[in-house]
Amino acid sequence: MSTIYLVRHGITPANRENRFAGRSSEPLLAEGIEQIRQVGERLRHKNIAAVYCGPANRTVQSAEILKSQLQAPLHSLAEFDEISIPHWEGLTKDEIRHQYGRQYPDWLAAPQTFSLPGCETLEQVQKRAAGAMERILSTGQTQNLLVVSHLIVLRCLVLYFQGREISDFRAITIDNGAILQVSEVEKVGIPVSFL
User: Fold this and answer.
1) pTM here?
2) CB 5 within 8 A of CB 147
């Protein structure tokens, strides 16, 4: 039975400054690099067969560090990219509130209903990320895999694996450099735990 390890990228300037990074190309901070090195140490003996990540610089940088430590091939997939909300990118949460009125409070209060022209919904994020996971797992091989992505994407994947509704999105907390373990991926409603 395959085991998947989900890892949130290391900490970045936007995380420090409470900015919405979106799909921007910001790098990891030195602290973020160290967080990911520690992730690699913790996963060193897990026999990771492959590392997957989204195309954003912070996830690629994190995945490159892990690839080197774990001696596993790296694959970048667009399906693991951050949610697309282009007009928020680079803005602090306060700036979003100031410039776009109710958008950010509505996103906080009911993210499952968030829908704006030209932006992705959580349901769309979950569909693309879960679809990528299903393709990766469709080989039927039993192997340990690592996915490095973003908070929003990882929350959507956890809900998918646990068989929970998108309305539970805010109930999941995943810090930078956190590792979640998904076991028994062949069944619905499977346990997801922090490593």
Assistant:
1) 0.94
2) yes
